[in-house]
Design a protein that fits this description.
With 83 residues, the protein is an all-alpha fold. It has four helices and no strands.
């Protein structure tokens, strides 16, 4: 996961969104309905085309907390610079 943002919230990346959806046992369409968005939006988040922000990111956090969803991403590994 990335660094905590404002008010300790964490950024939602594509893997975390997909993991939450699987944890909830929902399809993209079902998660979209729950969030009040389009299935295409969920797909774009899960492919990394876009990231949720604002109200969508907040709703994801609320849903994750209610579902007792815990997710630990693999720490980002820096690749050495080539000389």
């Amino acid at each position: 996961m990335s660094k905590p943002g404002k008010m300790g919230r964490r950024e939602w990346d594509r893997k975390r969104i997909q993991a939450l959806r699987h944890h909830l046992n929902l399809t993209q369409c079902e998660l979209a309905t729950k969030l009040g968005t389009r299935q295409q939006t969920i797909s774009e988040w899960e492919t990394g085309m876009y990231k949720p922000r604002g109200a969508s990111a907040t709703l994801l956090s609320i849903i994750a907390e209610q579902a007792q969803f815990e997710y630990r991403a693999t720490p980002f590994k820096k690749t050495p610079k080539k000389a």
